[in-house]
Amino acid sequence: MAKENKKLSTGAKIGAILAVIAFLGLMLMPLPVGMTPEGQKCLALFTFALIMWIAQPIPIYQTSIIVVLLLPLIGAVPKQSEAFGMLGKDIIWLMVAAFVLTSAMSVSNLGKRMALTLVTKWAKTPTGTLIVFVIVNYILAFFVPSTTARASLIAPIALVILEVFKAMPGESKFGKLMMLQGVQNNAFATSIVMTATSAQVLAVGFINEQTGANIGYMQWLLGSIPQAIITTVIAFIIGTRIYRYKDEFGGALGEATTSLKQQLAELGPISVREKKSAVIFLLTLLLWATGDYQKAWFGFEISTEQTAVLSMLLCLLPGIGVITWKEAKIKWDLMLFSAGAYAVGGALDKSDAANWVIEKLIQSTGINLLPPALVAIVLIFVTVYSHLIFTSKTVRTTILIPAIITLSRQLGMDPVPLALVCSFGIASTITLPPHSKVNTLYFSSGYFSVKDELIYGIISCFIAACSMSLVYFTWIQLIV
């Protein structure tokens, strides 16, 4: 509540005024040639919502509530159910289930135990320690579908190691690199697991809804792994060259390992709650991994969303489950935001307003004169670097993915592989502390500066965009 009631900044106030002006201007202007009346209303409401989501004079979920209310009121959609029914979308259920699974992993301490076990067993050298933290980030991405939750598990363990190493904040190159790679590997690991952040689930929803595709957990996983690994390896090597730490400390690693082993010991034997969490998560991964084969094996298929809801049920069932409903930290504000985004995005697409806007964009920029390959590369780079302007992953997804789908159609390109690869770049929020809670959490450690993150982040984003471009022209064509 304190966050929502804080004093509005000048930019937020100006944004609210501009949103209203834009809405009224687009609603009242003469109907453009080639646009339907419904399309004009949808465009006006979408522009209003877009400005409000960016400026945030009110929380983004409240803007979505306004959108859902206005869509049928102003006649932008013919039926109220097309706006109010968005909370019944299967993608929304997948988001809810992902939050329940995250809560189960956190409350049971299974995620913390996994991280501590890996670090204490495999971190034998400073470079080995960095590598272990990369691996931990990737493993936890499958089990903890929340970027902030994973950072909250890993950062304290990293700080213990740095403290034992006597790596001083602001001075230690090793500490700087460990924390910066914590930021980056969180993002790269997130990009390979569809459910690792709700923005990626939202992106898949747009792709499937607007193209008729059936992108699921395994298609995303198989498609994204190459770009994530290439980016991680190259960024890791570059980081060790920028921050040369080899002569910084002696043999303090043994002390760090002892301290972490003590933390692991304090957790005690693996609890029944942790065992139940592990079984549920392994079952979830198994069902997701075999989704393409279940029809042939059993005569029926359990979809990605059905698997997630089944897992959610198992987490909550008395006697079987590991958490109560009160312990399930479901972000209902994000659910409402997503519902509004789907509603106005779908209306914009169905009314052909999106096609009209893209046609005008093509005519004014001449992008249709560029080779399709160059268009794809430009869009991938735009998606990766767009977080420099739009800090919210969900807002960026709502803006970019439907536009990319429409634009690729206009240019005669297959929208599914391009939109999917661009979606991999949504997680790349790694250049400035305010760009995500993960960045802020690691930045608060004091080990790196804004300049450090900006330089290393821009370099790594370039690597990521190049890797995604390579995947688009090669690997992704075999997946979708």
Helix/strand-derived class? mainly alpha
Beta-strand proportion: under 5%
Low-confidence stretches: 1-5
**Rounded radius of gyration (Å):** 23 Å
In this structure, how is the largest beta sheet organized?
none
| Elements, N to C (H/E) | HHHHHHHHHHHHHHHHHHHHHHH
The total count of helices amounts to 23
The average pLDDT is 84
Helix percentage: over 70%
> What is the rounded distance between the termini?
44 Å
What overall geometry do the principal axes of the alpha carbons give? globular
Compute the number of strand runs. 0
Brief characterization of the structure:
The protein has helices at residues 10-28, 37-55, 60-73, 81-84, 90-107, 110-122, 126-143, 147-164, 173-190, 198-211, 217-242, 253-266, 272-289, 294-298, 304-316, 332-350, 353-365, 372-385, 393-410, 415-424, 437-443, 450-473, 476-479. With 480 residues, it is an all-alpha fold. Helix 2 runs antiparallel to helix 3, helix 8 (147-164) runs parallel beside helix 21 (437-443) and helix 9 (173-190) runs antiparallel to helix 21.
